[in-house]
Specification:
Blueprint lengths: L5 H9 L3 H14 L6 E3 L1 H13 L5 H13 L3 E3 L2 H13 L4 H12 L5 E3 L2 H4 L4 E3 L1
Parallel strand pairs: 1-2, 3-4
């Protein structure tokens, strides 16, 4: 199994740099299989959403579609899939950032009763408490 960095996923998805996009596509197409999936950790998921929003200006609907495809792809192994799916659904339906949704979900599964925050949008999530 190989780990995939955010920039490799971005190049594969966006196809904006011919050289890097070709290499990313080759790695994902040839080395990420059902038997040996590419590993995508939580940090990469959060960075990916942030890059697609901030650097590429993708709409939330587009990002939701991209995330859902990644989560459903058998050639990828997503770290803590249960938390990723719960965070995805929260992000899809709410106004909070994906990273906040994943952070709160991960903390809950880690035994936290709540996550304290100064973030107004995050504080509206079930797992958060505004300070």
């Amino acid at each position: 199994m190989i780990g995939l960095d955010t920039n490799v996923l971005v190049r594969y998805l966006v196809q904006d740099d011919p050289g890097q996009s070709r290499k990313a596509t080759q790695v994902i197409a040839k080395r990420c299989t059902r038997d040996a999936p590419g590993f995508v950790n939580r940090i990469v998921l959060c960075e990916l959403v942030w890059v697609l929003e901030s650097a590429y200006g993708y709409s939330k609907d587009t990002i939701v579609a991209v995330l859902e495809k990644l989560l459903r792809t058998s050639q990828l192994k997503i770290e803590d899939m249960q938390s990723a799916w719960i965070a995805f659904r929260m992000y899809q339906k709410g106004k909070a950032d994906f990273a906040d949704c994943l952070l709160g979900t991960t903390n809950r599964f880690g035994g936290c009763n709540e996550t304290v925050t100064f973030d107004q949008a995050a504080s509206k999530l079930e797992d958060f408490q505004l300070l």
